[in-house]
Structures are given as structure tokens and as C-alpha cells.
Amino acid sequence: MNQTPITTAEIEQAIRTIPDFPKPGILFKDITPVLANPRLFAGVINLLTANYQPGSVDAVVGIDARGFILAAAAALKLQTGFVPVRKKGKLPFDTHEESYELEYGSNTVAIHVDAVKPGARVLLVDDLLATGGTAAAAISLLKKLGANILGVNFLIELSFLHGRKKLSDIPTHSLVVY
Ligand code: AMP
Hints:
Blueprint: H1 8-14, E1 16-19, E2 27-30, H2 32-36, H3 38-48, E3 59-63, H4 66-77, E4 81-87, E5 95-101, E6 106-112, E7 121-129, H5 133-144, E8 148-157, E9 172-177
Parallel strand pairs: 3-4, 3-7, 7-8, 8-9
Antiparallel strand pairs: 1-2, 4-6, 5-6
The chain binds adenosine monophosphate.
């Protein structure tokens, strides 16, 4: 595999934009071409974990579903564990839940009550920051567990939706910003 560091321009070129998916008016950012390219996938994980060293993070938390792919790989890179924040009704043990408003309706995410210990240093990872509702709900869940949230890292940020404002107290980094 070619180990030359990747550029954000290369990631941006590989991201496929699908108009009107899953609903009219949404420009869906499809990261499957990035994941399918081993050099880009490894490069993205390197960039998402660049500010951390093994031993400095107790868990990488990923958000259902594409966030799992990135967070699990980031956890291995940082030699630490992976914790899922899932859509409601999917986790089998006792959970905390957090609901947030969407443009139409609402969504609920959940975490196992014992997923991280109080004071654990966690990195939150998701594929895309849009309005910020999902990440803000995941942060609320982690705060309920008493986690020390080191940062929130995204592959993509849709900056025109100002989702970052909802995460104002947590260091937030995105690799490709539209
Ligand atoms: P939000 O809560 O509005 O920040 O939405 C973020 C979540 O919805 C992420 O987990 C994304 O996977 C997904 N998402 C929102 N908008 C898009 C989009 N335009 N393309 C792909 N995924 C999106």
C-alpha cells in the first residue's frame, strides 16, 4: 500500500454527492468510495486520530451507523476500546436515552449505562456533522455517564448548517468542510 500521507483534497474528490437521497432536497454525502480505498481509509483514520496517542484515550465512541466504521478503526489505531451510540431499541442491556428534534419528527439515541466509567477520556467520532443534533445527543449521553469528552471528530462537516454551535464546549475537528 502507498503510505504517502493523503490530502483533504483527495478525500473530497472521493466523496460522492447523491442529490435527493434519502429525501428530496438532501445532498447525501456518500463515503463508501473513501472506505473502499485502503489508502484513503487508512489516511482518514490517521487524520481522525492525529491529535491523540495510544494511552491518552480510554474509548472511542462511534455513532450509528457510519460512525461505527470510523470509530472502530480509530479505536484500534489508538489501541483502545470502541463504544457504540445506537439508535433506540438496538442495545440489549440497560441504556440511557436522549431524544432530539429533526426537521420532521424526532430521533432517539442510546448508550449502555456501563459503556464508559465516570472520568473516562473519550473521543467521539461520526461521519458527518450536519445540524449537530445527533452529536449533541451523543454528548449528552456521555455526560450522563460522567465521561471526560476530549473531542468530537468528523470526516465531513456541512458548515452552512452551523451544527458546530451545538457542540460549542467540546473541541470539534472536521477533515472536509463544505
Ligand atoms: P445532524 O444530526 O443533523 O448533524 O446529522 C448528522 C447525522 O445524519 C450523521 O450521523 C450523518 O450520518 C447523517 N447525515 C446528515 N446529513 C447527511 C448528509 N447530507 N449526507 C450523509 N449523511 C448525513
